[in-house]
Each structure stands twice: as C-alpha cells, then as structure tokens.
Design goal:
Shape: globular
Largest sheet: 7 strands, antiparallel
Number of strands: 11
Number of domains: 1
CATH class: Mainly Beta
CATH topology: Jelly Rolls
Number of helices: 8
Structural class: alpha+beta
Order of helices and strands: HHEHHEHHEEEEHEEEEHE
Radius of gyration: 18 Å
Strand content: 15-25%
Mean pLDDT: 93
Helix content: 25-40%
C-alpha cells in the first residue's frame, strides 16, 4: 500500500460522518439505526483482507459444524483484534465511528468495551435472539454496538435483525444466547415489529446494549464477514457481576478494576470525546 493510500484511509476513518437529523431519534425510539455509506468500498476491501487473515490465524473453533453447539454454529468469534495489528487498531479506533456512537448515545464521549469479528461460515446456523448487555457488568444502558459487514449482505447470508423498541422493556434480560433464548424470545417478542433487511456495502448498524436482535443462517455458500465494536459511555461504571459471563467479562475486558470504579482500564481507551 502506498503512503497516499494509507493517508486516505486514515483521513476517512477520522473525518466526521454526516449523521442524518432523524437518526438519533430513531435510535432512541427503536433501539437501533442503519446508516448508509458510512465506509467506502476501498476501506472495506482493505480491512476485509486484514481482518480475515487475523480471524483465521486466531480462531480456535475447529470442530466440524455438526459437532458444534447452537452458539458455536452461529459464528467464528475473535475478540480484541486491535491488540494484534496496528492497522486493525486504526480501524477499531476510528473517530468517525466513535463519534457516531457518542452522538447516538447523547453522551460526552465513548470508550471501547471490546471489538469482535463475527464470521458466519457457509452453512453457519442462526444467531439466537439475545441482548448483549446480559454479558456486561456495566452500570448504565448507555452502550452501543456498531455492526460492520465487510461485504454486501443479502438475506441468505443472515443479516442482523432487530426487535424494534425491545430495549424499553425488561424481558429476557437473564437469558444467554442459546436455543432456550431463541424459543422463549420468539414468543415474548411477538409484540414487537421485526426489522430484518439486507445491508448494502458501506451500510452499518448501531444497536443498543439491551435491544434484542438475532441473525438468520448463512445459506449463501459464502462466509458472512462482519466486524463489530462495542462502545460505552465514557462515564460508565463497573457493577458487581450478576452472572458467570459478567464475571468473566469483568476479569477479561475490564481487568478486574474495582467494583464501582470507572470502566477505564488500559483495554478501554477513550475513542472520542467532545
């Protein structure tokens, strides 16, 4: 890659995105927003190659598909790629994306909780209904995940689907991702409108930590490659873990910082602040 190409990538990742006026209201009401043309084809192509190489290098899930649990069939999951590559770090630390997260949450700034690549292999199964914040020992619902497909994502690839407004009700908040969560929430979520649509190249979504979402199986014959970053309010505090997953997250992503203290370990850098 030439110095000019490197400079252009850095410029795009740092310059502000023109957030539509209605996006913040949509996010507040429905718990998510999909945004077009957030990243260019050249950026996505460049990071597709880098992130895919890291996923195959770091992935530890090698069991045949038929021997995997429902969770394992959903995707290959590799976390904190920013610590493995300076180039991927620049993507994860993008001020363009972090500013969108800050504006949607209506906070002063955001820190990184962690990043994760989610690669749904060909013939990969569904991602069951779940709310991400079940896993996080954090004091406030001021959290948001950006979901960035690295290719155009048609329905047969299993794009992310959202139960609109489900972040406003306290149902299913004690459920991990499982067959049980899929069965129970299929019933509970009938009261909510489902948004399940393809993603164009360059289109990304942001969804709240307590919004229920799922994804279909990948029957396209090609992998569905997605990169995500989880952002949290820069003022977020750590709470006593309420389940074994939060305990693990507290130790892994927050480095066992004291309960009640700021979620500002060295793994949780400030990515944007006004």
């Amino acid at each position: 890659m030439t110095d000019l190409q490197t400079d252009l990538i850095s410029k795009e990742l740092s310059e502000p995105y023109q957030l539509p006026e209605a996006a913040i209201e949509h996010f507040n009401i429905y718990g998510y927003v999909k945004l077009k043309d957030v990243l260019s084809e050249s950026i996505l192509s460049h990071y597709d190659s880098l992130i895919t190489d890291l996923v195959f290098k770091l992935n530890k899930l090698t069991k045949p598909m038929e021997e995997r649990t429902t969770y394992e069939r959903a995707f290959l999951q590799v976390m904190n790629l920013w610590r493995e590559s300076e180039e991927v770090k620049e993507f994860v630390f993008s001020k363009r994306l972090a500013k969108i997260a800050t504006d949607l949450l209506q906070v002063k700034g955001v820190r990184l909780y962690h990043d994760q690549a989610l690669y749904k292999e060909s013939l990969g199964g569904i991602t069951p209904w779940h709310a991400d914040q079940f896993y996080w020992p954090l004091s406030s619902p001021k959290t948001v995940t950006v979901w960035i497909p690295l290719q155009k994502t048609l329905m047969e690839m299993g794009p992310l689907a959202f139960a609109e407004k489900s972040h406003h009700v306290e149902i299913g908040r004690d459920l991990e991702i499982s067959d049980e969560s899929e069965a129970l929430m299929n019933e509970q979520l009938k009261q909510f409108q489902l948004n399940e649509t393809p993603f164009d190249l360059g289109e990304v979504s942001f969804h709240a930590g307590w919004l229920f979402h799922r994804a279909g199986a990948n029957v396209s014959g090609r992998p569905r490659k997605v990169m995500t970053m989880i952002y949290m309010d820069e003022a977020q505090k750590i709470v006593q873990p309420r389940n074994e997953y939060q305990q693990a997250d507290w130790e892994t992503w927050l480095l066992s910082r004291p309960i009640g203290s700021a979620a500002d370990s060295e793994l949780n850098p400030l990515l944007f602040s006004y």
